[in-house]
User: Fold this.
Amino acid sequence: SVIRASEDDPRLFGIVFERYYAAVDAYLQRRVGAGEAEELASEVFLEALRSRRRYDHRYESAKGWLFGIATNLLLRSWRRERRQLRAYARTAIDPLGGEIDGAESRVDAQRSRLVLARALASLSRDQRDVLLLHAWADLSDAEIAAALNLPIGTVQSRLSRARSRMREAIGPDRERNE
Assistant:
C-alpha cells in the first residue's frame, strides 16, 4: 500500500493527500465553515503522516482512517461546530450550497436549510458524527466504524436513531410546507 511505502519514503504520502484532501476538506467545511476547515484538513494530513506507522493495513482504503482523524480533531472544536450549525439555522445558509434561481425557490431552500440546521444541532454529538460521516462524507457503515473505532452495530444503531430524530425534527415543518 502507499501508506506502508510512505513509512520508508514520506514523500509518497503525498499520493494519499492528493487522493483524499478534497473530500476531507469539503466535509470539514460543512462541519465548521471554510475558514477553519482548511486548517483542520491540514492538521488531519499532518497527523496522518505522523501516525502512518500505526495505520491498520487490513483496510484497503485510508478514507475511514482519515475521516476518523478528522472527527477526533472536530471533538476539539465541537463548540465552534455547534455555533456554526446555529448560525446556519439563523441564516439558512449551507456553506457549500449553490445558487438557486428564482425568489420562490430561494425562499423554500432557505426554509429547508434552516430546518435541517436546527435538526442537526439537536442531535447528540455521537449521532451527528455518524450521520454526517454517512451523508456528507459518503462513508459506508464499515468506513464509519473504522473512522470512529466503533462496532458496526453501534454505527448502525446511532445512524438509525439519528435518522429517526431528524425525521421527528423535520417532519412537522415539512408537513406545514406541503
The two ends are 51 Å apart (CA to CA).
